[in-house]
Amino acid sequence: MRLDSDYARQLDSQDPLARFRDEFVIDDPTLIYLDGNSLGRLPKRAATRVKETLDHEWGRRLIRGWGEGWYTAPQRVGGKIAQIIGARPDEVAVTDSTSVNFFKLVMAALEARPGRRKIVTDDLNFPTDLYLLQGAAKLAGGGCRVEVVHSADGLTVANEALAEAIDSDTALVTLTHTAFKSGYVYDMPAITESAHRAGALVLWDLSHSAGAMPLAMNECNIDLAVGCTYKYLNGGPGSPAFLFVRRDLQDGLRSPIWGWFGQKAQFEMGLDYNPAPGINRFLAGTPTMLSLAAIEPGVELLLEAGMDRLRAKSVAQTEYLIALWEAMLEPLGVDLHSPRDPAQRGSHVSLGHPEGLRIDLALIEEMNVIPDFRYPDNIRLGVAPLYTTFADIHEAVARIRRVIEERLYEKYSAHRPEVT
Asked: In this predicted structure, what is the pLDDT of residue 1?
């Protein structure tokens, strides 16, 4: 594979998705942004859509907006996300945060499997999910416990290790589909089948997968899933999350949060809770309309681009990045903390170095490169195919090499900052 900058520009000139970069606000063309796996760029259409919501829908229509699209927005936007994750439109809703949705579905799953006392997860899972599982197990009582399967290499967890932990006492198996540190992608069909064979339900966290690769909730017979919208879906900071519940399970599960948007015949204002049918029973409070409005344009851009084409570009770009690492950074003591097999890798590549934090700071402060950092030593480089170019990737690696070779990181403190 050619690795020079001219080749990177050639690849960009041949990119069938190149036009989508102009759909995003790029205030500083010299900035190399490789943190779209934490916060996606702002779609220009989202800025227009939010302004319309403010000026016309709220400013002019006022409360009439609820009858003119606000009330059904969680289902409408959820139906579009459903196309991205391979689900039916009535199986996805946008509501609350990822953590709140995760808690709802964990508690619903535990109630649906009475007498079973075990939740299976692993130590590559996103920490918030582990905290929520610990709290849910305590609330469930009856000896409910969380069994954490450990990774042998810090990058992956073998299907066999997970299958061994799943038994007749398992109520729920829950994993993050793309591991947040390494970018490892789990074998969703195989793990789901192991859980179902034991009679357990499965809950997938799609936060680092949705919008980065094609997913197949229905084809894989997935029970439950959650995901955030501010990474590859480009919904904006703190934008509401989505939840998925397979259609045939919906009316047999019960959310632990009994809010009025999850109530049947909501505006009758009855004093006793009666859950709404279908996905609506997993709603709770009033939708946050300004944030919700910002999500839809980013989802529409992904649908226009096509998830198969996006995944193909993502694989090509992460392969190029890894080839650059091998030639330019591995000789400098930088390790690869992501799988080499693209089928097992999401859309970010994690590099390891003992001075990873200070290298990250030097890149941000001096090199005009924004990656992100995860302890203890992981520099994550997020590839968002809608707007990341091959030239971005080439130049980012060149600047990382310069930071290491010239020891530019030495002027930065190794003190752990509050936010990374």
From this structure: 78
| Percentage, residues of the chain above pLDDT 90 | 98
d(CA 171, CA 162): 14
Residue 159 counted as domain residue: yes
Report yes or no: 245 and 253 within 8 Å, Cβ to Cβ.
Answer: yes
Q: What is the DSSP letter of 5?
A: H
Could you tell me how many residues make up the chain? 420
Does the annotation count 12 as an active-site position?
A: no
CA dist 119 and 165 (Å) reads: 10
Report residue 99's pLDDT band, with 50, 70 and 90 as the boundaries.
Answer: very high
Mean per-residue pLDDT of the chain = 97
Residue 28 a catalytic site member:
no
Annotated active-site residue in 20, 184, 230, 232: 230
Is the bond preceding residue 376 a cis peptide, omega within 30 degrees?
Answer: yes
Structural domain of residue 402, as residue ranges? 5-30+306-411
Distance in Å from the first CA to the final CA of the chain: 33
User: Is the pLDDT at 180 greater than 90, yes or no?
Assistant: yes
Instruction: Give the tokens for residue 203.
Output: 């809950």
Please give the Cα distance from 47 to 293 (Å, whole number): 10
Beta strands in 194-293 (DSSP E): 201-205, 224-227, 242-245
- Shared domain check, 293 and 319: no
pLDDT per residue as tens digits for the range 333-347: 999 999 999 999 999
The tokens of 146 are what? 């969380």
Examine the residue annotation and report whether 205 is marked as an active-site residue of this protein: yes
User: Is residue 375 annotated as a catalytic residue, yes or no?
Assistant: no
32, 370 contact by CB (below 8 A): yes
Does position 399 have pLDDT exceeding 90, yes or no?
A: yes
DSSP state of 145: E
For residue 231, indicate whether it is catalytic: yes
The reply to whether the predicted model has a pTM over 0.90 is yes
The pLDDT of residue 419 is 86
Catalytic residue among 15, 35, 96, 205: 205
Catalytic residue among 126, 242, 387, 409: 126
104, 118, 181, 231: which one is catalytic? 231
Same domain, yes or no: 348 and 212: no
144: domain CATH number? 3.40.640.10
What is the per-residue pLDDT across 360-375, written as a single tens digit (0 to 9) for each? 999 999 999 999 999 9
Catalytic residue among 41, 374, 380, 399: 380
Identify the residue whose tokens are 């400098």. Answer: 332
- Structure-token pair, residue 28: 């500083």
Please give the tally of structural domains in the chain. Answer: 2
